[in-house]
Amino acid sequence: MESQDDSSPESTIVTTKKTKTPSRMAELQKFLTDKWKIKELIATGGFGSVYKAYDNYKGKFVAIKVERKNSQNLICSEIGWEAHIINKLKGCPYIPTVFYTKVSKECSFMVMELLGPSLSMIRKNGHQFSPGVVAMIGKQCLYAVQALHQAGFVHRDIKPANFAVGLGDKIRTIHLIDYGMCKRYRDKDGNLLSNRGEVGFRGTVRYASCKAHLSMDLGRGDDLISFFYMLYELMDNHLPWWQESDVNYIFHMKLTYRLETMAAKLGSQMKTLAKHVSSLDFSSEPNYELILQQLTNMMTENSVTEDTPFGWEAWLASKG
Fold first, then answer.
1. Residue 237: left (phi > 0), alpha (psi -120 to 50), or beta?
2. For a surface tag, which of 21, 32, 65, 216 has the fewest beta carbons within 10 Å of its beta carbon?
3. What is the mean pLDDT of the chain?
4. Which CATH number fits domain 117-314: 1.10.443.10, 1.10.1270.20, 1.10.510.10, 1.20.120.610?
5. What is the pLDDT of residues 117-170, one digit of tens each?
6. What is the pTM for the complete model shown?
7. Does the active-site annotation cover 169?
8. Which fold has domain 22-113?
9. Which sequence ranges form a coiled-coil region, renumbered to this chain (predicted)?
């Protein structure tokens, strides 16, 4: 359940390089009957595979995430866990829609709306963002993270690769994806769960909080520290440790480059944001309104409005 770097497939529902594996596709097609027609493989990884498919009943393309077969009890199914969390977030425009889920010993899969590229993929295609546009991106990402937190979960792997833009009329909407590493921080009655102490590393090294490096139980503040690192990278193009591969050295650099120190060159709003998220402990309630206000102020200061182009709209439209 850990991700050591940011080189894994971009997401479970993001369109990537087209690859075909006929035998696997034919095997999966048996379980899908005639309702969904598999078209191509989108991504594959430790979780399983994601396919682009055509929904013959709805008359549109969808994404189908298929879990690798294992001997674990079905209650441990990652597909089932992801679907459970996403269904808790119904109604939030920054969360992808799940149309159908099936968990079985033979084949577990989830049918979801098909999304476009992740923020990470957009950057890799040469797109750079002004501070004001990064703030506009950040607001949508924060709305999604806040919704997840309010539902009683922490994500534990916030990074550009786990935010994907929509397609068609959702091309300006950013979606939080990949919920397999999520955990509850509240019980079903809304009570805070106890800090479990040392539990093992969770997340992606580049964006992980110092507590994650120490293998500690993660809370909402850790998601927001990863969120800060993500915004910093989008604004400054690279994090200070982007060329490093040694996990311990990256941890040492994070201890040296405190968030407020990093934020100093990005303006007063980012410094205020950094100061707040740095102050949060495991049980702290984040001040989302404070963070949103800083992002809004940054947009205003840079003459960016909610109608300002992100920069990827024309690129995606040209790709069809």
1. left
2. 21
3. 90
4. 1.10.510.10
5. 999 999 999 899 999 999 999 999 999 999 999 999 999 999 999 999 999 999
6. 0.90
7. no
8. Phosphorylase Kinase; domain 1 (3.30.200)
9. none
